[in-house]
Amino acid sequence: MVWPFLAVILYEKFALTATQVGLVLSNAAVIAVFTSFIGSALSDHFGRRTLMYVTGGLYIISFSLLAQVNSVSGYVAVMTLCAIATSLWRPLTATTIGDIIAEPQTRELAMQALYFMVNAGCAVGPIAGVWMGLTGQQSSFYITAAAFALLMLMLHWGFQHQPPKRPTQVADTPPPARYGVAMTLKVLLADKLLQCLILANILCMFIYAQTDSSLIQYLTRAQAPELLSLISSIIFTNACVIISSQFLLLKLLAGYPLTRRIQMGLLLLLVSQLWLALNPIELFWGWIGAIVVLSLGETILFPTMNVHIDRLAPDHLRGAYFGAASAYDFGFALAPLGGGIILDHWGGPALFATAALLTVLVIALYRILDSLPRPDFSRFDKPVPKNPRAD
User: Fold this and answer.
1) Which residue range is the domain that position 355 belongs to?
2) Residue 238 counted as domain residue
3) Rounded to the nearest 10 degrees, what angle do helices 2-14 and 104-133 cross at?
């Protein structure tokens, strides 16, 4: 609900240029990426639960402050806190699913279910966001903070009622020891497939994030008809398409390898960017049609990316691998700034044409992915024991 509307708030309240708005958003996201990797790696040693509680508390503080700030510097500080919390929360939830569920197919279904529920919330959020965020009622962000407080209570209840591991699991497959930080970095640097995957998905996130920030700025500055309705309809359409098609697409594509599924999603992404580049500013339903195509690609891509990392990661390095994968957020972080610069100098059609060319590059990177070498984990030094205080 929050991120796209903040771009409009910064423009309407402070008359910032597209580049300045992009710089504000990118600054927050870049800081968050570094925090995410450190936090996710530490979760392998100190446990997911503690960090999830800390992250939830950071969310509550951030949204409470967002209800009060009235300056550009205040927005910069609070949005940075929000971005840090988000970048920590995503890999922690995905990693926790991997910890709880042993069977790969069940784990994939759980990740799909998580993504489904997030988008079910997004289907309601845009409509509420227009009322809460764009009418000057900043105090409404206290509702968001209260929602996270409720989530923390539910999370605590869930952990308290989590079934114990079966005795056979404890006896037959004890948890592997954990690598130290230096050894973890050594393994990640040796995994060339992972590095190429991260580069491809950074570009992919850069392309997708243009819808969250630059598209909204383009429509605002071009004075698109029925702007607020169009913005909320775009986000509402995105969520509804995902909700209605996710499990159908999962069933239809179940027989295809992960990389093939991702390539299909990328082709849909390419079509959507070309559509956005060519759509006339006044054609309301043209924007919605492009978002439908983009959302179908997102429905395939985003959950599959998490599953892909989960399958690549050794059990004792799952947190580190998901933390490394959070480098995808560099694409999200740089998108507002990059998109804002292109908007200020060349306009919206040039922005989405550039995004289409970058999509072609991502497709090429995925084609060479399976040919890249991975480390032999047995070659590395003996890992350090797991911290007994870890959850």
Assistant:
1) 2-371
2) yes
3) 30
Planar angle of CA 386, 390, 391, nearest 5 degrees: 135
Integer-rounded Cα Rg, in Å, for the chain is: 21
In the chain, the number of structural domains is: 1
Q: Which pLDDT score is estimated for 296? A: 94
Q: Is residue 319 part of a domain?
A: yes
Is residue 296 within 8 A of residue 238, CB to CB? The reply is: no
Say what the alpha-carbon torsion angle 249, 254, 256, 260 is, to the nearest 10 degrees. 40
The C-alpha angle with vertex 96 and arms to 57 and 388, in degrees rounded to 5, equals 85
C-alpha span between 142 and 116 (Å, rounded):
25
Q: Which residue has the tokens 């999200």?
A: 332
> For residue 327, what is the DSSP state?
G
pLDDT at 385 over 60: no
> Residue 295 burial (CB < 10 Å; 0-12/13-18/19+)?
buried
Instruction: State both tokens at 261.
Output: 């599924």
Confidence of residue 128 (pLDDT cuts 50, 70, 90): low
